[in-house]
Amino acid sequence: MDDKIVVEDLSFYYGDTPALVDINLKIQTNTVMALIGPSGCGKSTFLRCINRMNDIIPFTRVEGKINVDDQDIYDQKFDVTNLRRRVGMVFQKSNPFPKTIFENIAYGLKINGIKDKYSIERTVEESLKKTALWNEVKDRLNDSAMGLSGGQQQRLCIARTIAIQPDIILMDEPASALDPISTQKIEELIQNLKTQFTIVIVTHNMQQAARVSDYTAFFYMGKLIEVNKTDTIFTNPEKEMTENYITGKFG
Amino acid sequence: MTTHLQQELENISQKIFQMADLAIESIQNAVTSLKNVDTALAESVIQKDTKLDQLEISIDEDCIRVLVTKQPAAADLRLVLAILKANTDLERIGDLSTSIAKETIRLDGRSPLKPLVDIPRMSEMAISMIKLAFRSFTERNADLARDCIELDRQIDDLNMQVYRELFSFMAENPSTISQALGLISVSKALERIGDHATNLAERAIYYIEGEDIRHQE
Is residue A251 part of a domain? Predict the structure, then answer.
């Protein structure tokens, strides 16, 4: 399988403080990679490096390389706007725009230059179907998105992300604020979406990582301690530190 | 700090050790009952098998509860899975000892065909295997489990020796056929106990090293 994301010797600093140290990692196309580790281990910082979200934080510095489809995304000539179109992101707290359900999805399409009304309508419907939200909202597309439940809002945000056809979806604890039923729907969705997208998910929920991902990377104090197939990590990890973390002996 | 999970794993481990002790006792008593034609001892083996059956169910329930409520991972998960399977092996060892005890009862006070030499040796070997497998678990030492697996060949060889000897008895004197077949079934039961002890050792290696060595030559 092709490597979608290749990270080489990546280090990241907040001022002089290193948050990530010499990370080397490959993420294959159409797989789900879970990033686990205790708070402050650098997993969210790493996630935000993949779409250069950290660029907007002052006094930060990146060393090393991240290649997406063999292109160095930290190359000076690299178009960051285009990168963020190709690398979508879903956050812990759902953040729909204070607009209608329809507009939430159509907005991204419009600013990406799609003007054709029918094309927009079709994409809105497809995106809502892919996120299993269509049947719940099809009769109230012009209602405010703010009236949806937390789980529905999060699925709307995922629909909004996939509408513009990214290659990669980054998810930062997408289900941590949701009830078990909504969490299950998000997890099902992740499994369905990986046939079309490459997904990187940060989660504090170990069982969630085990349920949704193909590969798991364990971070500790800014270092990548171990990465392997998820079933290997959760049944027979190589490193003692990984074992101690996933068996709840620290963290 | 001992977590609730560690405490539960400790309790389940204690139960499986108790089961191993009972299984060993039942092999010992079954073969002694045959050697000494002690029907009362044979009957006690059959009665005590219920205890093994109850422990099997209880350990299964404990393991399922831990899997559902504590969601163990890594070595903790492997321990639960190894115990779940070892549990079945020990229960089967109990059943096989019961078959040996039934053979004693079938003798109905008559002496066995010949003084038993190889069969007690097989039972001692099987007991050593079970002890090695469980020491391997407690000491987290996979080499002990490998030593256990090695011993299984010796039991298999003894089993073949017993077969050959009893076949010649039957060929020479057909009136011994019934008793000889009984002893063959005892020998077969001990050979099977050796196989279950091998399984126990394989479970121990899986727990310790995370490697599944079953069906490898």
Answer: no
